[in-house]
Design a protein that fits this description.
2 domains, 6 helices
Length: 268
């Protein structure tokens, strides 16, 4: 973990309010794992003063595998993300990372279900690409990609290029089936049980995914989306309640953001 004074490489609009931004980083990011994140701060940023968290969306590598930078996926929600949407190549940002614990897939897992809701797709491309590089047969896996409307369905072509089957749902039926993404996930898990489920998205979706996994006794890891002020465990503001009475609360920036779903008390 270190602070980098990084340079914007590109800023690509993805449609709607989402952008894919390439950023230079130090060589240590070559060892980053899918699910880890960075804390980003813009020059002269005073309101808000603190950095904002972003999942590592993808490693940028040359043809011979040399790390060139990382990509983050940005959805315009507040002041910082709006300013980021206007960044141009050559602009600078301040990045702290890589931070947190990523996905940890046990050896022998070959049928993997991935579930992403909205901007929760951000760490999933890094995950799928990492599995592809490890020679996992992604045609035996499934990505469940959900959103409120078709503008929330992101990066579909990137996943298809990896030969990863995709099931799309939207709340309004504007793309794919009109239902929650957890419905086809549950049906598919019942038809052919996966070795593990990996998910990122809104807390309600993660709670449902965790419930499905537990009811079928399927291992499940979830990447928690939560407000985060420091990213290094100093502020203790990103706590979630643990199901273990001895553990008390888990801190997403240190214990996560990827956690075993059975560790989390989603009801509180």
């Amino acid at each position: 973990m270190q602070i980098d004074n990084a340079t914007i490489l590109w800023n690509q609009p993805l449609g709607g309010t989402c952008y894919r931004i390439g950023i230079t980083v130090s060589a240590q990011y070559a060892y980053a794992t899918p699910g880890q994140f960075v804390m980003l701060r813009l020059p002269n940023q005073t309101d808000p003063l603190l950095r904002r968290p972003f999942s590592i969306h993808r490693l940028i590598e040359s043809e011979n595998g040399i790390l060139q930078g990382i990509e983050i996926l940005v959805k315009v929600i507040g002041r910082i993300t709006r300013r980021l949407s206007f960044c141009q190549p050559g602009d600078t940002v301040d990045i702290l990372g890589p931070l947190g614990h990523g996905f940890s897939i046990p050896s022998g897992c070959s049928r993997i279900f991935m579930a992403a809701g909205g901007i929760g797709v951000a760490p999933m491309l890094f995950l799928a690409t990492s599995l592809f590089k490890k020679k996992v047969d992604l045609s035996r896996c499934i990505l469940f990609l959900g959103g409120r409307t078709k503008s929330d369905i992101l990066c579909q072509a990137d996943f298809s290029a990896l030969n990863l089957p995709i099931i799309v749902t939207t709340d309004d039926g504007s793309m794919g089936d009109q239902c929650l993404i957890t419905h086809p996930l549950e049906v598919s898990a019942g038809e052919q049980r996966p070795d593990i489920i990996l998910a990122c998205g809104p807390s309600g979706m993660l709670a449902c995914v965790a419930g499905i996994a537990e009811s079928m006794n399927i291992p499940c890891q979830v990447s928690i989306e939560t407000a985060m002020a420091c990213g290094i465990g100093a502020c203790l503001g990103c706590a979630v309640k643990s199901r273990s009475p001895d553990a008390g609360r888990l801190h997403v920036c240190l214990d996560g953001p990827v956690l075993d779903s059975r560790q989390i008390d989603f009801l509180h």
